[in-house]
Design brief:
Elements: E1 3-7, E2 17-21, H1 31-40, H2 42-49, E3 65-69, E4 77-81, H3 93-110, E5 115-118, H4 130-145, E6 152-157, H5 160-173
Parallel strand pairs: 1-6, 2-4, 2-5, 5-6
Antiparallel strand pairs: 3-4
Helix pairs in contact: 3-4, 4-5
Bound molecules: adenosine-5-diphosphoribose (APR).
Length: about 180
């Protein structure tokens, strides 16, 4: 499985695309959203503001994804997705989270890109329990990457603790450990 797990700042990765865990407005925020906008510069906000609204103030509904250039980032593109807010697990959160990963990879393929890094979507402000989110991420990516060796996926965790949680989720489904990086 062309999937690896690292502990790093996602804004430092020079890949085809990095994924932003955004909010529906796509107008920036804290966490990884804030870090990506700071590193990309104001042109990213302008590009997001130019994206069409599907409803008042909504440029990206939860589970969907939008793509922009990376501007000042080493990454060539940013794929913005909006994870579910955790409401206890009975409001379709797992399905929506899986959609984030699927729709981001759909955009990667549509733009003929090959390398992508995801943060731990919804595991911060949105409160998704990390071990459950990791299980959804790994299962979805495993399904999406089956037979698709042309895409290289990195799960970019921001701490060693989160790296361990995602590594455990990967070990639970796959025979090989991700290369330690
Ligand atoms: N690189 C990689 N991961 C990061 C970085 C970074 N520079 N900064 C934060 N993270 C990690 C967090 O530690 C967390 O594990 O990204 C994960 C997702 O956390 P959030 O950024 O809080 O995203 P999320 O939980 O999806 O909440 C989204 O927060 O910032 C706002 O505008 C955003 O409203 C939206 C909400």
């Amino acid at each position: 499985m062309p999937l690896k797990i690292i502990a790093a700042d996602i804004t430092s990765l020079g890949l085809d695309a990095i994924v932003n865990a955004a909010n529906p407005s796509l107008l920036g925020g804290g966490g990884v959203d804030g870090a990506i906008h700071r590193a990309a510069g104001p042109a990213l906000l302008e590009a997001c503001r130019a994206l069409p609204e599907s409803a008042s103030g909504v440029r990206c509904p939860a589970g969907e994804a939008r793509i922009t250039p990376g501007f000042g980032l080493p990454a060539r593109h940013v794929i913005h997705t909006v994870g579910p807010v955790w409401h206890g697990g009975t409001a379709g959160e797992a399905r929506l989270l899986a959609c984030c990963y699927r729709n981001a990879l759909r955009l990667l393929r549509e733009h003929r890109l090959h390398t992508i890094a995801f943060p731990a979507i919804s595991c911060g402000v949105y409160g998704y329990p990390a071990a459950q989110a990791a299980g959804v991420a790994i299962a979805t990516l495993r399904d999406e990457l089956a037979g698709n060796e042309a895409i290289e996926v990195t799960l970019c965790c921001f701490s060693g603790d989160m790296h361990a949680i995602f590594q455990d989720a990967l070990d639970a489904v796959g025979p090989s450990r991700s290369p330690t990086t």
